[in-house]
Fold:
Amino acid sequence: MKADIVIKNICQLVTMEGPNRPRIKEEMKNIGLIENGIVAIAGDEIIHVGDGELPDYISIHKDTLIIDGTGKTVSPGLVDPHTHLVHGGSRENELAMKLNGMKYMDILNAGGGILSTVSATQKATPEELYEKAKKSLNTMLEFGVTTIEAKSGYGLDTETELKQLRVTKELNEKHPIDIVSTFMGAHAIPKLYKDNPDKFVKIIIDEMLPRVAEEKLAEFCDVFCEDGVFTVNQTRKILKAAKEYGLLARLHADEIEPFGGAELAAEIGSISADHLVAASERGMKMMADKGVIADLLPATSFNLATGKYANARKMIELGVPVALSTDYNPGSSPTENLQLVMYFASLILRMTPEEVFTAVTINSACSIKREEKIGSIRKGKRADIVIFDSPNINYIIYHFGINHVDKVLKNGKIVVEKGRTKGTF
Ligand code: IZC
Ligand code: ZN
Structure:
């Protein structure tokens, strides 16, 4: 078998060896680390992982690219399983309000927050949405992210939701980053339905869901289940209806107030429950029982500046599989930088660097149902690989606030070189 690319002499190779399922408890510390590692790639596939030299059955040819991994850390392409990628406008005007003590929910209730992004997204053309999101995808790629999840939810009317989802579909087709699409019509209650939110729930179920399913625009359905947004009953109703259309459930749970979101996620067999800053211990235990993945978003907590963070240590102790994401969005988390999330997860959530790598690779791949193809460096898996200009994983966490990425390989092609995107997407 001939290799097209060989990465050798790798100082630390993070393989995430083991089964294609979420890792829990102590498993989260086993990242299958190999010193003096070697990886061989043919086409878009990994054909060998090990240490030292290539085995005899793998040969190189005159065009084989040999990459020297001396002093480098190599990991699976990072997976960001919670983003609000496609949207119009920005919300830097909220910064002064926040510094003056106004809370996230107060801004939303005053007609700002999500609702201001909704009007900017309604006004934007598909081309404008595409160009803005593409810029963010390039930034993500430069930070080592090769697959993401992206939600709608800034339309809140059928046509704008579809517009967002169609842009997501086109980006998935044209940009190297793979995008798993989520329909989130239930992101906020539009002003028009403020006094009759059940009517809006009915529109989501009767009008939006059938169109999204018919055009095959999403694999998941998400709801902002939170005090003042969608109730537990409304969330259950929407996610059950989505299931009838073949959409898998995920939800924004207990982000701000303890609201029963974690419990609901376990009850309905949601794939993930995201945020969980205010989740109850009972909810966490129920999630552990059902294997619901906790997607934690510490950059959002940092940016909301309330000082409250999800209790990652408790979740890991109880056996909840933990993943991490940026929550990239124009309000509560305007950053595409998953490495920043990795520092926060370690220094604030007290996760070890090994747990952090598990959370941004195999566990996040599981949270978007891509664990058979990505999330680990393993023979037969897709060649989505990051080469960090760092001698070990501890260094990546310790030296914070910069981009450690040297190269990114997506489907066996170099798409980032010296930390910069290569070519035009
Ligand atoms: O635009 O504020 N929490 N949704 C739920 C968000 C934050 C995104 C936003
Ligand atoms: Zn979100």
Summary: The chain is about 35% helix and 25% strand. The pocket of 2H-imidazol-4-ylacetic acid (ligand 1) is lined by residues 84, 113-114, 117, 224, 252, 255, 329-332 (CB under 6 Å). The CA atoms of residues 115 and 327 lie 17 Å apart. The radius of gyration is 21 Å.
